[in-house]
Predict the 3D structure of the following.
Amino acid sequence: MNWHKVLSLFLWITPPVLLGVLAVVLCKRGLYREFPVFFAYVLYEIAGFVSLFALSSILGVTSEQYAYAFSVAVLLGIALRFGVIDEVSKDLFRESQFLKISAKRLLRSVACLLLVVGVLFAVYAPGNNSVRWHAGISVVNRGAAMVQCGLLLSLLLFSRFLGLSWRRPAFGIALGLGTLTTVDLATSAIRVEFTSDVTREFLNLLITVASLVCVSIWIGYLRAPELEPAASLAVVPQDEVETWNTGLQRLVRH
């Protein structure tokens, strides 16, 4: 028995199974109403795994056809992740209308920029249409992972500065997604330098482990009750927050 293949198959199957558990938790606690985009992302990841697993099991499907299906799944996943980040930012910054609107505008601008860059690489990259397509997808995926890491880190830092509780479900969603996108970004950079089969298998295994950790964080956060911040916690006064909002508005206008 090839224990490496058995371990790889186990790690590949476990995250979607835990995503199913996560979907049940979201339904039982009614959080799917509070985070509908995140709930849709969870269901999409489950459906995407089932579809790709079925394609890989069909003998008539070529590697190129599977690559096209995988690329489409990656693009849709990127779009949903930006939607999840937007949803998390609205929840974390619901006390500040200006920060909520600014985050939404920033996400739209970044998404449009990534789309344009991906199309340009797909059109002008050297090689045949297949090579161009994969080049464009690779650029968009790396760019999206980089931007998403920055946005998620900013959300966590800003939220901590505003004195919000770390036990809020939005924090868990941001933390898990940040972990996954960070590993995705790191592995994408390593793939450019190292192209051996051993390295590729190791990186695929690393991404699978990161997915397992990400889903575990989501389940842990969303199952736990949200706690109120302790009275001794240093919370930024509301008037100081409003002063920051005013300063940011002036900076954006100029």
User: Anything to note?
Assistant: Residues 229-236 have pLDDT under 50 and may be disordered. The chain is about 85% helix and 0% strand. Residues 109 and 129 are 28 Å apart (CA to CA). The two ends are 66 Å apart (CA to CA).
